Amino acid sequence: MKNFECILGNTTDNEIEKLQLLLKKVFKKDFKFDYLKWLYAKNPNGKAIISNITSKGNVVGHYAVIPTLLSIDNKKYRAALSLNTAVDNKFRGRGFFKIMAEKAYEESRKHGIDFIIGVANQQSTNLFLKYFNFQNLGQLDVKFGVGKINYSENNKKFKVFWNNETLNWRIRNPKFEYKVYSKKNKIIITNKLYKFINIYMGQFNKGNSIKIDKYEKNDINFLNLYIGVGNNNWKKSLYFDLPNFLKPSPLNLIFKDISKKQNKLILKRDEVLFQLMDFDAF
Q1: pTM of the complete model beyond 0.90
Q2: Tell me: domain 5-139+250-278, CATH 3.40.630.30, correct?
Q3: For the CA atoms of 227, 230, 232, 234, what is the dihedral angle to 10 degrees?
Q4: Do the bridges between strand 115-120 and strand 75-87 make them parallel or antiparallel, or are there none, so unpaired?
Q5: What angle do CA 154, 264, 97 make, to 5 degrees?
Q6: From-to residues of CATH 3.40.630.30 in the chain
Q7: Which of 2, 7, 177, 219 has the most Cβ atoms closer than 10 angstroms to its Cβ?
């Protein structure tokens, strides 16, 4: 790695400004400063764990995991969501991803993080499996249709744990304007796609642990989009699989136990509840 250095990020404004430039260059779209600041520095579960590769003062490689909490058999564990990977096109093919991820996972362990979870396209999935032996739990379900989406989160062994503080932080994502509805004992969160498609972000049990300041009035949704894992009650619904040609890329749910335990956790897909709110696909 002559002329390159792999360093941990510090989520300062100066660093975030440099990351803006790299992410825009790699993904060909703007990453607003306030969005990255919200994501990397204001998360109640902890600041992002960032690994950057620098050259001559510029960031040419970037990998970040976002601290979160998982509920596994009703016990809480510290985990992290693998989210942003970017390498300047000029420096690809040098193994930067492996170097950055190894450093990020090492630092994650120091923060008491036991698990890494993420959603990856097929190309990225291959790298996670090749270099780090992640589990591939398969593609997220992508459904469209009309009517209610009802399921219970209580019968799942594995899910992301949200409380009042973290869920209220999540819905303040500056990129989007989420709609939050109260229906009986549930909180339902949605987003809009092309103004007329309702994106189903997820539902949560209402209670002392989760309270939202403001709820929307119920509205009529002509078409709903569902992305996630864990809802197995589609047979009697008016929901159908989105054709593959309409999907930008297959999205695979990946998971790894990075703890120092000898007996690593192995997940089964039917044990998992993973909602769109648990990651950021758009």
Answers
A1: yes
A2: yes
A3: -20
A4: parallel
A5: 100
A6: 5-139+250-278
A7: 7
